[in-house]
């Protein structure tokens, strides 16, 4: 499918078909890993919603879903991710096998903070799954167990990722024009 022209978008990085195929592959690995366990996917609002729902539909095991809402203030000078929980989980995760589902792991600060919070709630296991991984900008190490795509150091939008809250609904993932984004 040819994407509609968007002035702020430079080029398509991953098409809808490429994303769907990769999510199916990842879902196969997750279904194998968590067979006969109590998997709960935890999505981070709003960016991971599109990925989480697509992933969940490809899983062949029973799965529960919950969401965290956050506000991020990244203080890179201090190397710390200042994240506020704006919407907490609906239910406890004690004793469950939890997979945190992210749209992108960039510096790693947000994921590290969320993993720490979740670990403190005594899940049986805790893993991290991300649609996009930009390891070139990592400030802190986080254990990414499942990832769909490694991406270059360019600001991207689509499939849940936004620029000023726009473009989340694109079915593909695209690179922004250099004068936009960061
Ligand atoms: P981190 O804490 O630096 O790993 O950043 C994580 C968050 O930054 C993601 O969940 C996104 O909301 C946002 N982010 C980082 N890179 C991009 C991008 O290229 N496009 C859109 N959002 C991004």
Please characterize this protein's 3D structure.
The chain is globular. The chain starts with 8 loop residues before the first strand and ends in a 6-residue tail after the last strand. The chain has helices at residues 16-33, 49-58, 109-119, and strands spanning 9-14, 39-45, 64-75, 80-87, 97-105, 125-133, 146-150, 156-157, 173-176. Helix content is 21%, strand content 34%. It is α/β, with parallel strands linked by helices and 182 residues long. The chain has three helices and nine strands. A six-stranded mixed sheet has the order 4-3-2-5-6-7. A three-stranded antiparallel sheet has the order 1-9-8. Inosinic acid binds at residues 47, 74, 81, 102-111, 155-157, 161-162.
Write the layout of secondary structure elements.
Layout: E1 9-14, H1 16-33, E2 39-45, H2 49-58, E3 64-75, E4 80-87, E5 97-105, H3 109-119, E6 125-133, E7 146-150, E8 156-157, E9 173-176
Parallel strand pairs: 2-3, 2-5, 5-6, 6-7
Antiparallel strand pairs: 1-9, 3-4, 8-9
Bound molecules: inosinic acid.
Inosinic acid (IMP) binds next to strand 5, helix 3 and strand 8.
